[in-house]
Amino acid sequence: MTITSTPIPAVPNDGPADLPGLAELVCALRHCAQLPGLLIRVSPDLGNNAEAARSRCDRAPRIALGADLLTDSGSLPLYGVLAHEIAHHALDHGDTRPFWRNPVWLSKAALLGGLVVRLPLPVLAVLVCVVLAAALAGARRERLQEYDADTHAVRLLEAAGLPGRRLVAAALADLVDEPAGYRLIGWVFDGHPSARARRRNLAAGRPARRLRWALLWQRTPAPTTALGFTCTACELADTEAVIW
């Protein structure tokens, strides 16, 4: 894949930004997030969605972009989506834990073992409750990661000299609102908060609600500044971002 050198995209006051300069933007965000490398691939199956992942072989940060994100007329949402997925890697989200450290897996294994040895029904009922509680706790953990990635994406974009809040808000504005049933109770079982909840949290400008002691273990690295840079690995020349 050949990457041509173009300036970091400037965000205009009216109308969408141009896609040329996307490589520089990604490289600037990677430097701001202090990632050693980043592999981006386009996936037609994702549509206008994106996902962050890691390879089990080399642990290299990877981002899959839906093809529709590159063909839409407005590129502002794309910049916000990229920053969000890079923020997931910067915050070490999605790091797969061994099965023996996964509460959901352990609770399910305990329930299966109880069924095999035919434990009394009251004990099985307790194990079912434990499985449900572990699943709900895991879903909440993933929802908090989505909120944190939105907040950190703003910091990364601002460190690159771009209007972070505006770009992330543009990405969230493109999300389809979930039906009323999902917003009422369905979100409890899902790892993604509703689009409305994410927009509300971004507008609040503070971390999502959680127990205070939980923030003691929250890893939030400070982004480095990459307003202008020279990246020999990416064959990109020194550029200067335009701040609007």
Automatic annotation (TrEMBL):
InterPro entries: Peptidase_M48 (IPR001915). Keywords: Hydrolase, Membrane, Metal-binding, Metalloprotease, Protease, Transmembrane, Transmembrane helix, Zinc. Its cofactor is Zn(2+). It comes from the Bacteria. Residues 63-202 form the Peptidase M48 domain. The chain crosses the membrane at residues 109-137. One of its GO terms (biological process) is proteolysis. Binds 1 zinc ion per subunit. One of its GO terms (molecular function) is metalloendopeptidase activity. Belongs to the peptidase M48 family. This is Peptidase M48 domain-containing protein. It comes from Streptosporangium minutum.
